[in-house]
């Protein structure tokens, strides 16, 4: 049986030399629940990546961002589904966001990123980008 495939977009938001990291809710399979990720989400039918990323960050963080250049993309196969995860360089006017769909957030330097328990797709993206 063919696994469901999801196109996911994520934001690499920087504040100086630090990058925004968000922790997923305690729901979903164990291999992604409570793991860390870059904020973002699924691209819906009829949306382009930019529209999806702006929508997701507004829904999940009540935050308006500017979506810039594509930074990289990885494919990952989880036990129940596969993902194509694409990262975009993003900017915000301020860091005044709300955690509406995450349990925690932090700002880390690229060197500190491996300290967190990332989803497998995000971990692969980190290796590619840094």
From TrEMBL:
Known catalytic reactions: 8-oxo-dGTP + H2O = 8-oxo-dGMP + diphosphate + H(+); 8-oxo-GTP + H2O = 8-oxo-GMP + diphosphate + H(+)
Pfam short name (any one): NUDIX
Record flagged with keyword Oxidoreductase: no
The protein, known as: 8-oxo-dGTP diphosphatase
Domain (Nudix hydrolase) ranges: 3-130
Any GO BP: DNA replication
Family assignment from sequence similarity: Belongs to the Nudix hydrolase family.
């Amino acid at each position: 049986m063919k696994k469901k495939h999801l196109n996911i977009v994520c934001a690499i938001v920087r504040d100086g030399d630090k990058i925004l990291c968000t922790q997923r809710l305690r729901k979903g399979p164990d291999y992604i629940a409570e793991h860390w990720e870059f904020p973002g989400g699924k691209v819906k039918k009829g949306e382009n990546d930019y529209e999806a990323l702006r929508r997701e960050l507004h829904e999940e963080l009540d935050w308006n961002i500017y979506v810039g250049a594509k930074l990289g993309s990885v494919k990952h196969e989880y036990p129940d589904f596969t993902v194509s995860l694409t990262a975009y360089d993003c900017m915000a006017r301020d860091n005044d966001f709300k955690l509406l769909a995450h349990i925690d957030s932090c700002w880390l330097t690229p060197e500190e990123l491996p300290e967190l328990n990332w989803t497998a797709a995000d971990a692969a993206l980190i290796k590619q980008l840094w």
